[in-house]
Amino acid sequence: MNAALRQTLSPARKICGSLSVRIAGEACVLRCSGAMWVPAHGALIVADLHLEKGSAFAVRGQLLPPYDSRATLDRLEAEIVELNPAVVVLLGDSFHDAKAIPRMAADDRARLDQLSAGRDWLWLEGNHDREALNRSLARDAEATVRLPGRIVGDMALGALRLTHEPEPLTADDDRRGEVAGHLHPAAKIAAYGRGVRRPCFVTDGSRIVLPAFGAFTGGLNVRDPAIADLFAAPPMAAALGRDRVHALDWAILR
């Protein structure tokens, strides 16, 4: 990592084990949970919850433990309790499929109402949940379950532009300030005589891709061209450890 990029990113560990970085000049905190906190705007940003993925697999005959939504909401609640955000932005693919919302357990559904109370709760549409969100938030007459909050398109937050899917890098546009999810980035390194693979943030200080927040989500290696080609210069991976976020130089990633 060159000196200019290192100075732009300037990772600094917080007490909770997070990393502080600047994205397009905005101070952002990368949390151990995979959430991003933007303190100047009181905004908590999470990507790709994929709620009810377990039940979606069960419908197709692939049985998984049916607790993914509860585990994901537990982690989201812990972030909200600690940070008390004024704004919560869900960057799309919050639900795994079009019928996920009616499949939710009643107590899990009620938790969304509780977590959203007193704050601006914003849903961005993803490729997995566009139909589900529009049925439940557009006040569809046939909707059986209503969600709190509101749907927004790509949105600005200070110098940041929040979206679901990152846009390709072009010669005349560096996508400065873009905050996206969708790709579920994961970093792999060699440690303790074996390969270690962890979900991660990936950023060059200009744009950032968030890890998937959901309990049952997989990951795409950050060296895959779908992620690597988003950056004009080698970025930093910020891998989620058990109790802290680890800043990893691109050169050590496998």
Summed up, the helix count is 7
Could you state the order of secondary-structure elements as H and E?
A: HEEEEEHHEHHEHEEEEEEEEHEE
Average per-residue pLDDT, rounded, comes to: 85
Portion of residues in beta strands equals 25-35%
In the predicted model, the low-confidence regions spanning at least 5 consecutive residues are 1-8
Largest sheet: 9 strands, mixed
The CA-CA distance between the termini, in Å, is 16 Å
Radius of gyration: 18 Å
- What is the structural class? alpha/beta
Number of strands: 17
Enzyme class: hydrolase
Protein name: Ligase-associated DNA damage response endonuclease PdeM
Keywords: Endonuclease, Hydrolase, Ligase, Nuclease
EC number: 3.1.-.-
Report what the structure shows.
There is one protein chain. By secondary structure, this protein is α/β, with parallel strands linked by helices. It has seven helices and 17 strands. The strands form two sheets. Strands 9, 10, 11, 12, 13, 14, 15, 16 and 17 form a nine-stranded mixed β-sheet that branches. The chain has an eight-stranded mixed β-sheet with strand order 1-2-3-4-5-6-7-8, covered by helices on one side. Helix 3 runs parallel beside helix 5 (106-116). The radius of gyration is 18 Å and the shape is globular.
